């Protein structure tokens, strides 16, 4: 299998990713959200763009500011956003679900307040709109329609910013999505910690879950390429 690196929340730090790609030459990398690139993503990752494919999903902090949003969603790599679709990456079908659950929209297992971004926008005052559309903050909120778009798909791997239920702050909605997709593995970021889920969790869920911590990297088999502790000087 061609190597794929799954990269935990970089929060604007990319040296470790560039070094890992130059050292190991993976076929592709997938950023698991909270990218917060301080410049357009293609500029931040310029040293490796001719060495590997770059794919990503967004996290909650990628809508913190206009710059966070524009440098990711408006970058030359905007079409490599995996959110809400399945793409074959280095021979592996990967499904993506970016963003987080927010109470103003939907916090599973409770019923959603709004089924879609369009429904939210219809009830949103004009003064709350951003660039004529959804408020910037809620462009990183998960709507039921985001999950629904994937329910008819099949994939080998699910990447999400939110965690499945094996994490203490995870959600069964992620389990259900992964199961519906028929995935054998799922990778998540968001929580900035290294967690090793046991075989019992994999048997319960029907797929192997992997957490990828802050600025950490795992490969397509779940092996650790790099671990990082929050606060470590990168």
From TrEMBL:
It holds the Pfam family Metallophos. Residues 3-193 form the Calcineurin-like phosphoesterase domain. This is Metallophosphoesterase.
């Amino acid at each position: 299998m061609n190597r794929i690196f799954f990269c935990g929340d970089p929060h604007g730090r990319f040296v470790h990713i560039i070094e890992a790609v130059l050292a190991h030459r993976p076929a592709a990398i997938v950023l698991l959200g909270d990218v917060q690139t301080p410049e357009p993503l293609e500029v931040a990752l310029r040293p490796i763009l001719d060495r590997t494919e770059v794919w990503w999903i967004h996290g909650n902090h990628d809508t913190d500011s206009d710059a966070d949003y524009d440098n990711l969603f408006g970058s030359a790599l905007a079409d490599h956003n995996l959110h809400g679709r399945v793409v074959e990456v280095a021979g592996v079908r990967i499904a993506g679900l970016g963003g987080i659950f927010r109470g103003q929209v939907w916090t599973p297992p409770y019923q959603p307040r709004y089924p879609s971004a369009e429904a939210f926008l219809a009830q949103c005052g004009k003064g709350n709109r951003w660039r004529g559309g959804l408020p910037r903050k809620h462009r990183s909120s998960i709507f039921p329609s985001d999950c629904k778009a994937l329910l008819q798909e099949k994939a080998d791997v699910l990447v999400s910013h939110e965690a499945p239920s094996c994490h203490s702050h995870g959600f069964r909605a992620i389990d259900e999505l992964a199961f519906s997709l028929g995935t054998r593995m799922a990778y998540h970021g968001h929580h900035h910690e290294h967690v090793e889920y046991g075989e019992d969790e994999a048997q319960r869920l029907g797929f192997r879950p992997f957490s990828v911590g802050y600025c950490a990297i795992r490969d397509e088999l779940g092996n650790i390429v790099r671990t990082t502790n929050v606060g470590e000087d990168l």
